[in-house]
Prior knowledge:
- The longest helix has about 50 residues, at about 70-115.
- Helix 3 packs antiparallel against helix 5.
- The protein is about 80% helix and about 5% strand.
- It is mainly alpha-helical.
- It has one domain (about 45-215).
- It starts with a helix and ends with a helix.
- It has a two-stranded antiparallel sheet.
- It is built from seven helices and two strands, in the order H-E-E-H-H-H-H-H-H.
- Strand 1 (about 25-30) and strand 2 (about 35-40) form a beta hairpin.
Amino acid sequence: xxxxxVPIAISFCVASLYLKRNPGGxxxxxxxxEEEKKFRLSExxxxxxxxxxxxxxxxLIASAEVSTKVRRITYKEDAYNDVDQLRGESKGYRRVxxxxxxxxxxxxxxxxxxxxxxxxxxxxxxxxxxVTFAVGISSGFxxxxxxxERSFYLQQTADAIEQEWEAVEIGVGRYKRIDDEEExxxxxxxxxxxxxxEQKKRQQNLEQPPEARNTNE
Length: 217
């Protein structure tokens, strides 16, 4: 009854592996001597090319005499890329925080359990010591580097910039009564700049030692 599903499942696995090794996209041709090879760019290569094009655009805008409106439009388009970057950094800090938090929770329970049965076993005493040491290191790293706070502030800034981007696109919120496009762009650039500046200040505050951090607060 289930025999027909086996070759179908195998074919899906083979197809997924093939597409993983040979992702879709436009074929690129490279001539090596007398031979011509065809291949598709990987996701990393595409991101690298896109980053280079963005840098080239920034250099052209910086070197050429363009209007303020064009600069603001460019800033607006780059703002959405900043959202992806901020969320990527937030996700990285959140993973580290969750990992360390898991070590603390599991390690604390394991240390309590092994401590109760390690009275006459030397090996379990060393296990208890190692687990307690790992819990202490994880707790110290979380308290000093503030991974949770870093992740929260990055995500908060990314959500705020995305909200502003969507608001100026469809003309809602503070942009509801602004009919002039240049005025709306100026308002958007000013608000996004403020959000980025606040994020940098929070980041600098978190990177300070705990003593200086408490003094500033």
